[in-house]
Design brief:
The chain has 286 residues and is α/β, with parallel strands linked by helices. Helices cover 45% and strands 18% of the residues. Helix 2 links the parallel strand 3 and strand 4. The protein is globular, with a radius of gyration of 18 Å.
């Protein structure tokens, strides 16, 4: 098991990484003073795989749990879908001391975080990422939001989680395409922050499927990537300077996603395209 602390002036939190962690969700949340009421937000596929385990862990720890299921896909990351979370929060009579738990990938995490930031002017949020991309990037750092018809993530807020709980075992049900997209974000960290991680990946024969990675390499990828994100966020929580380095590949990548209607390429694929394009521009500019 690995534990990384994101040290922030206002509120620090733990990134807990361990196989089987999903069953420890309730016990890990229990000492954090997160209120009794919990709204678990997920999508149909992820909830089908892991919803009952997450709810069981929470209920066994004494939480009063309700759930909200959102449609899957970046094209649904909008205010219309966000209202589903608000409606569920109202129906469950969520209070300011209550907690929303995001069980899913980046879309679920971003939307749940934004709902938590805005409902009753701020609830607790716990991130339980189930995609590689969300584990190493989206779940950490407090960036939340929804898309506008004219652009990605134009509406949002900084709202740090109280806990990020990562269980590498859930990656076994992640589609290969999504795993490859997550590796784009890992490669980003190797490029902008962690040269040793980049070298380890260069020396690996294949990185495109989880079955091609040894458990040791996967664990190192998760730990080093999460530590890289934590290091940057600690130095620049609200993206006033250094944190912009995390957007490597994202400027062009977001344009690709928007122009293709958020349905043709995944976020990770768009970031990969953006990194290649940015690198070529850098070479041309000398």
């Amino acid at each position: 098991m690995a534990s990384i602390t994101v040290q922030l002036p206002s509120k620090s939190y733990e990134i807990a990484i361990a196989s089987g962690n999903l069953d420890q969700l309730g016990p890990k949340m229990q000492p954090l003073n997160l209120g009794k009421k919990v709204l678990l937000v997920s999508n149909p596929e992820i909830f089908g795989h892991y919803g009952s385990r997450a709810i069981a862990s929470l209920e066994q720890a004494g939480f009063d749990v309700s759930h909200c299921i959102l449609p899957a896909g970046e094209q649904y990351k909008n205010f219309q879908t966000l209202n589903n979370i608000y409606d569920a929060a109202l129906a469950h009579r969520m209070e300011r001391s209550s907690t929303m738990v995001a069980l899913g990938g980046g879309v679920v995490g971003d939307m749940t975080g934004f709902a938590a930031a805005t409902w009753l002017r701020g609830l607790n949020v716990v991130q339980v990422p189930t995609s590689l991309l969300a584990m190493v990037d989206a779940a950490i750092g407090g960036k939340t939001g929804v898309n506008h018809p004219q652009g990605k993530n134009l509406i949002g807020a900084f709202h740090q989680p109280r806990l990020v709980l990562i269980d590498p075992e859930v990656l076994k049900t992640l589609p290969v395409r999504e795993f490859r997209g997550g590796m784009a974000e890992v490669i980003k960290y190797g490029t902008i922050w962690d040269a040793e991680l980049f070298a380890k990946m260069e020396n690996s024969q294949e990185l495109d499927e989880i079955n091609h990675l040894t458990p040791g390499l996967l664990e190192e990828i998760l730990i080093r990537s999460c530590q890289s994100k934590a290091d940057v966020v600690e130095k620049d929580e609200k993206e006033s300077g250094l944190r912009a380095i995390l957007n490597y590949g994202h400027t062009i990548g977001h344009a690709v996603e928007s122009l293709t209607g958020y349905t043709m390429v995944t976020h990770g694929e768009a970031v990969a395209i953006g990194m290649v394009a940015a690198s070529r521009l850098a070479v041309e500019l000398g």
